[in-house]
Specification:
With 191 residues, this protein is α+β, with helices and mostly antiparallel strands. The chain has a domain of 127 residues. It has 5 helices and 7 strands; from the N terminus they run E-E-H-H-H-E-E-H-E-E-E-H. The strands form 2 sheets. A 5-stranded mixed β-sheet has the order 3-4-5-6-7. It binds iron/sulfur cluster (SF4) (2 copies). The site of one iron/sulfur cluster has 11 residues, from helix 2.
């Protein structure tokens, strides 16, 4: 199969943070060239930050995901790095953390999870089925409220659950630690 390329997509350049150049999530990188620019892509490609050079979205990594799931077409950039989200266990009252795939939602697609015809429905289902206990963090941004987050997961009774997760940084751990914890939780759930 031919290796995928970004083509005309630049979705991660206006959703994902790039700390090396002080670009926060959803701030939009000043080097991103979007239509109507003649050349679409990175304006500093040969000298782009290391994190950009190392970055791949899940769509690029998944040979089975067709064109309709390309981030600029479906409106969601699926991160290859996992995160976690917290829940209060209804039975024990304890706070539990779950691993989650991060979905960085482009502006204008915030409510696509409600649309039964949207390709993101497949992506959410596939993410939740990826491993036992796996969920989705649906990250969004609007200029009034800033970043916010919703979580999707399948509970122990097999019910699909959607919760308004509040601010995305509620878990008081650095990002790298959350990724490591998510991997550990996923490994534990598989045993
Ligand atoms: S979101 Fe994926 S396909 Fe789009 S520009 Fe970024 S890495 Fe490429
Ligand atoms: S530096 Fe280039 S690759 Fe990195 S976010 Fe900006 S436009 Fe995208």
């Amino acid at each position: 199969m031919t290796e995928k390329t970004c083509g005309g997509c630049t979705a991660c350049c206006h959703t994902i943070p790039v700390p090396e150049i002080n670009v926060g999530a959803y701030q939009g990188c000043p080097h991103e060239c979007r239509p109507p620019a003649a050349q679409i892509g990175c304006g500093i490609y040969s000298t782009r930050p290391r994190s950009c050079a190392a970055w791949n979205c899940q769509w690029l990594a998944e040979p089975e995901w067709g064109d309709r799931y390309r981030p600029d077409r479906c409106g969601v950039v699926v991160d290859v790095l996992l995160d976690t989200f917290g829940l209060r266990d209804e039975t024990t009252g304890k706070f539990v953390e779950k691993p989650a795939m991060q979905f960085w939602v482009e502006r204008g697609h915030e409510d696509d999870w409600l649309d039964p015809d949207s390709p993101v429905q497949d992506l959410i289902r596939s993410a939740c089925a990826h491993a036992p206990g796996m969920g989705v963090l649906w990250r969004t941004y609007d200029p009034v409220h800033g970043q916010s987050c919703r979580a999707f997961y399948v509970d122990e009774q097999g019910r699909s659950v959607s919760i308004d997760g509040g601010p995305p940084t509620r878990t008081p751990r650095p990002e790298r630690e959350r990724t490591m914890l998510a991997l550990e939780l996923m490994g534990r759930a598989r045993k």
